From TrEMBL:
Cofactor details (free text): Binds 2 [4Fe-4S] clusters. One cluster is coordinated with 3 cysteines and an exchangeable S-adenosyl-L-methionine.
Domain TRAM: 406-479
Gene3D superfamilies: Methylthiotransferase, N-terminal domain (3.40.50.12160), tm_1862 like domain (3.80.30.20)
Organism lineage string: Bacteria, Bacillati, Actinomycetota, Actinomycetes, Micrococcales
Residue ranges, annotated region (Disordered): 1-25
Keywords: 4Fe-4S, Cytoplasm, Iron, Iron-sulfur, Metal-binding, S-adenosyl-L-methionine, Transferase, tRNA processing
Name this protein carries in UniProt: tRNA-2-methylthio-N(6)-dimethylallyladenosine synthase
Binding positions for [4Fe-4S] cluster 1 per the UniProt entry: 39, 79, 113
Amino acid sequence: MSTTLPSPVTVPPTAPEPAPGVRPETAPARTYLVKTLGCQMNVHDSEHMAGMLEQAGYVAADSRHAAAEDVDVIVINTCAVRENAADKLYGNLGRLAGAKRARPGMQIAVGGCLAQKDRAGIVERAPWVDVVFGTHNLDVLPALLERARHNERAEVEIAESLQVFPSTLPTRRESVYAGWVSISVGCNNTCTFCIVPHLRGKERDRRPGEILAEVEALVAQGAIEVTLLGQNVNSYGVEFGDRGAFAKLLRAAGAVEGLERLRFTSPHPAAFTDDVIEAMAATATVMPQLHMPLQSGSDRMLRAMRRSYRAERFLGILDRVRAAMPEAAITTDVIVGFPGETEEDFAQTLRVVEASRFASAFTFQYSPRPGTPAADLPDQLPKAVVQERYERLAALQERISLEENQRQVGRVIEVLLAEGEGRKDGATARLSGRAADNRLVHLALPDGLAAPDAPRPGDLVSVSVTHGAPHHLVADSALVPGGAFAVRRTRAGDAWAARQAGDGEHAHGAADAACGTPGPAGPVSLGLPTIGRVAPVV
């Protein structure tokens, strides 16, 4: 692929050549909006897309223009895991067709998993799309936008394997108080229902020094919470030949000075080992929270899904986690209606869900994904059967979630305040955030407490839980005479306030110290095998 693109603006001969995709300073800045469909990995990929656009001279649309989708460039980062993913994409594209007609020069780009899967078919179905790029070549987005503008035609570029590790790309982080850090990309599992390995490739692990450098940089920029990301985080180290690598990484990352909360998602039960539980329990900054995908409680269905664990092993993991961390909140994923699932299979799932006492669960009706082995299995279940089972499972989990949250009433918890977590906060005069166990908490402020004395996103507030609902906790203890309420103002809150005031930059890109993650000065050892010098992240 050529990396030198013609520019729509004439550059004087004495001026240096702009980087690929970077518009000359004489051109007006174009605005952009990135819309994310899908998982946490997609959210983090969207941060990279935004970072690359800003490095190329684009500016993020303000909230008013973003809400109206009145921007120069809209990027839709797609998901392909569920059947309705395509419906969501083409619904968005259909609506944007009119917006594009009304705004000459507007561009629409589609990236992510569905783009990797459908490729040029997206342009065939929605010919007003300007750019399609895949999961393996996020870095080409600015260049493709410029090429499409110059050539006045759609540009489709899908790489078959990873070209640039995403974490080395510029990053515009949505939050200054909490951040994602990818430790690996891709997946080596062969679950029959999942298309992710096909779209994201085999697992590739980052070097531990690069990961720790990124965590340290995030903390230096104000973050107090970090979430380690991977399709299967606890298989980290497969390229190093060290099965204990993830536990070592948890301990090392958890020891970064200034970090207060460390999380990770998502592990796989088959590879979840006791050393990880020990590292979680022994590392104070690792939060008492675990997302452990069950998928089915039937051993027969687990075999059909190629999930290399069985229900009793799964329950055993939960028992050991709770023995080490009694207050841990465990969440899960469950698929209903997998091909061939009988009423007895479904009853086994209900039994395991009841025994697991999940704080919450993401429940899905199975939908065939073309390109997966399960799509061709016999005994696909009727929609009515799947729907009825789904409703029974949802009702069971709703009851369990309510009971588990009601058990929290009276506990004093520390809440990391967030932006935008509570949709009704304006009406209820509450603030919202996450407890250590990741439960969503809506909390009241004492009467008369207002800015600038009120806590800010990124600050930590200690309150007592006064009510438990299925999907959240309420902590109105500040309204009770003598009730628990204490604010700990943090570096993260300071960083949030500075961003609001425009006093400084947050992590926009890799071009300078404020806009990327500097590499370590030298190799960082976790006791893992090393392959040459640890490469810096630039």
